[in-house]
Amino acid sequence: MAHQISSRVCRNVFITVAVLMCFSVIFYTYYMPTVNWLKWPTVSRSDSCRDICINALKMPNQTERVNNTCTVKITSTTNLLTQAEPVTKTDPDTILLMWPLGRKFYLGSCSSLYNIHGCRLTDNRSLFNNAHGVMFHHRDIHGNLSNMPTLPRPLFQKWIWMNMESPSRTVKRSALNNLFNLTASYRLDSDIPVPYGRLLEKTGEKTTYRIPHKNKLVCWIVSNWKAKYNRTQYYETFKQHIRIETYGRGFSKNISNEDYLNVVSSCKFYLAFENSIHKDYITEKAYRPLVLGTVPVVLGPPRENYEKLIPGNAFIHVDDFSSPKELAEHLKLLDQNEDLYRQYFTWREHYVTREGSGSV
Questions:
Q1: Which segments cross the bilayer (predicted)?
Q2: What is the rounded distance in angstroms from the CA atom of residue 107 to the CA atom of residue 17?
Q3: Are the CB atoms for 221 and 260 separated by under 8 Å?
Q4: Which residues are catalytic?
Q5: How far apart are CA 354 and CA 356, in angstroms?
Q6: 299-319, pLDDT tens digit by residue?
Q7: Could you give phi then psi for residue 339, rounded to 5 degrees?
Q8: What span, in angstroms and rounded, lies between the C-alpha atoms of 268 and 323?
Q9: Are the beta carbons of 182 and 161 closer than 8 angstroms?
Q10: Helices and strands (DSSP H and E) totals, the chain
């Protein structure tokens, strides 16, 4: 039976995939990006990004005495890049322990899962003392920290804080301060950036992209409906000037997974409105329309922020227009002019898009 589409279900599925794929994201997008307009740090081609990432976990931690307790200090990313030594095939695997995940799924060697050699993923907590890194997902940590490790922490071990929610939807826990060495999140300035999607440069023979058949102008699927959200207020004015096909729990019109794909691909434009506006918070709402051959109309951080991840001619930003009415008139113009509409697909001559770090 197909699951009902909701933003919460989609988010949970993505987080599960992203946790497992976070290191591959470093390899392919952080240290050696294939798309030259990504504004992320890179290392020289002579360095092995795999070796750097694995050795980041193997480096000794610095410690300091605070209130007669030994506290691990955060090590800078710059030091990780400059101090890493090459990994050899004879080195034992680096162990990355996922704690806690809140769900069960297959874990194994990185080579069998992602063709990355020299590491091992596990959720076996008995390996805590041997793990080079332990990753914690913020939303799965209990408020009283009762499900955090109780064993003494090895000095060589790195703790990684992961969070894919925006600050507006993240519960602050001061007890977690000074516990982590590395961060992993959608933020591009994280030690381990895990964006909700990515674009890859095309390889091989270039082919002409065929836009899916369209029989709807504007669509929006939303489950988390709150009147106070910026997106809700924008929509209430926007709908007065243009017809919008709406779906999801927010409109008492749930659709199946298959229907979701069919609906979005059949729309010329999709309202990729974020539930909160924060730096780098660009979620699957923007990437899924790109994957399905639809132009996203985005509401979120400024255009310049989107263009760090997505070509500027692949989307329409609400801030480009003085009012919802002006945006509606622009979409109607594109609907009547096929040549103008096709301009939003020219980027596909050079790139392909992927939703989530683990999407295929």
A1: 12-31
A2: 11
A3: yes
A4: 165
A5: 6
A6: 999 999 999 999 999 999 999
A7: -65, -45
A8: 20
A9: yes
A10: 10, 15
Output the pLDDT for position 159.
Answer: 96
Tokens 């399905």, located at residue: 292
Among residues 247, 231, 355, the alpha carbon closest in space to that of 300 is found at 231
Burial bucket for residue 41 (CB in 10 Å: 0-12, 13-18, 19+): middle
DSSP state of 103: S
Angle at 104 between CA 161 and CA 72, to 5 degrees: 25
Residue with tokens 């955060």: 74
d(CA 41, CA 50): 15
Place of tokens 């070509």: 311
What gap in Å lies between CA 70 and CA 343, rounded to an integer? 58
Q: The whole model's pTM is what?
A: 0.76
Domains contained in the chain, CATH given: 7-194 (no CATH), 216-355 (3.40.50.11660)
For residue 133, give every residue at least 6 positions away whose Cβ sits within 8 Å of its Cβ, in sequence order, or none. Answer: 57, 94, 95, 96, 97, 157, 158, 159, 160, 182
- What are the backbone dihedrals phi and psi of residue 298, each rounded to the nearest 5 degrees, phi first? -100, 145
Task: For residue 285, give the H/E element and its range.
Answer: helix 284-291
